[in-house]
Amino acid sequence: MKTLLSTLVILLCLCSLQSRAQNDVPLNDPHAPKPKLFADLPAKMMTRITELEGLFTMEVGRSINTVISSKFHFVGIVISRSRPNENYRTVVVRSVNRQGANLTFTRTVNDLGVVKYSGRIIGLKNADAYELAMENGEYYFVKRDSYEMIAE
Q1: CA angle, corner 133, sides to 63 and 62, nearest 5?
Q2: What angle do CA 103, 35, 64 make, to 5 degrees?
Q3: Which of 110, 100, 48, 108 is nearest to 73 (CA)?
Q4: Distance (Å, rounded) from C-alpha 35 to C-alpha 151?
Q5: What residue spans of 24-111 are helical by DSSP H?
């Protein structure tokens, strides 16, 4: 009888733990209400890469004011810069005019010398973000749902 009772108690505990584990809320709950940081900006903004290229020369701690598009200037402070080799550069800028947002901009060069750029403007506490995309040889910042861009 004690064995049966012990087995039932263990099964009950396991079932309780299993059901509890299934109810964990993800860190980035897509249904949690978050404010939109870029509600006043268009869904797509053409950008000049030459303007952004200048960020790679900025020292950490330096204030910047760069033109993302005619409708949006990104004002911030360089918080990180990486240049492990000539084929890879990245810079991270914390915004002061869009609180909570960071701009990450990266330049890569492959073995054939082809240059590609990637970038994001994202705030972890906001519902929207921008991602750099190339269309027809031009670069654009395209508005996205930030939940889709953040991996848990």
Answers
A1: 10
A2: 25
A3: 48
A4: 19
A5: 49-53
pTM greater than 0.90:
no
Alpha-carbon distance of 46 to 133, in angstroms, equals: 10
State residue 19 phi and psi, 5-degree precision: -70, -35
Torsion, Cα 131 29 78 72, to 10 degrees, reads 50
- The secondary element (H helix, E strand) that includes residue 104 is strand 101-109
Count of residues making up the chain:
152
Contact 96, 77 (CB under 8 A): yes
What is the spatial distance between Cα 143 and Cα 120, in angstroms, rounded to a whole number?
10
Residue 106 identity: T
- Determine phi and psi for 113, rounding to 5 degrees: 85, 10
Tens of pLDDT along 42-79?
Answer: 999 999 999 999 999 999 999 999 999 988 999 999 99
